[in-house]
Amino acid sequence: MLEILYQDEYIIAINKPSGLLVHKSFYARDAKIFAIQELRNQIGQHVYPIHRLDRKTSGVLLFALDTAVLKIMNDRFATREVEKKYLAILRGWSPEELTIDYDLTNDDGIIQNAITYFHRLQSTKIELAFNNQPTSRYCLVEAIPETGRMHQLRKHFKHIFHPILGSRPHGCNKQNKLWLELFELKGMMLHAHQLIFNHPITNEQLILNAKINEEFSRVGTILNLDLNKYK
């Protein structure tokens, strides 16, 4: 059963598990289960995804319950009237805050402007030898993408040399291998923890929060991060 964060006669939001595709994808033809069909079966009616989350990204995922509401919300996403907030665990200690304005190229070879703002929430260092150093540094950040390009956060954090832990292919392969061998980490430490927008019909502001999953919490414990407010 999918965790429902909000539901009325117009929209519904879930806390998407990591590993679940939103819909069928050319890039993941092995998948047999999708959020659209699971949610449809769970509530007994058609749902229309308003935005997307990567397969490995968990967190708030919003659906419309009819096509008129879908259009309203699509327009609001396009005009940046919806604020998306993500939690990510990065390799190294990132700047305290930064706006990354770095163009990305999509699968059709088209260059698109992409902007991400983030600020560092916590920093940590553990006894984990890596690259001839006896310890390893990590940090927890909150990221707010102003644009919605494919794999934007993963690509942007790799661009500033602070890749998201567990991100493949836009990450640190050696670090990911180390965590797989030592801690059996197969997921990616990226979670859409909050969505802020005005309701498409009532215009009332909604703030939807999604709790972090067990894998994210487990990694936080290994790294001595305080994630209690996100559980």
From TrEMBL:
Keywords: Isomerase, tRNA processing. It is an enzyme of class 5 (isomerase). Residues 11-159 form the Pseudouridine synthase RsuA/RluA-like domain. It comes from the Bacteria. It holds the Pfam family PseudoU_synth_2. The keyword Isomerase applies. The keyword Nucleotide-binding does not apply. It catalyses: uridine(65) in tRNA = pseudouridine(65) in tRNA. Its EC number is 5.4.99.26. PANTHER family: MITOCHONDRIAL RNA PSEUDOURIDINE SYNTHASE (PTHR21600), TRNA PSEUDOURIDINE SYNTHASE C (PTHR21600:SF56). Responsible for synthesis of pseudouridine from uracil-65 in transfer RNAs. This is tRNA pseudouridine synthase C. It comes from Flavobacterium zubiriense.
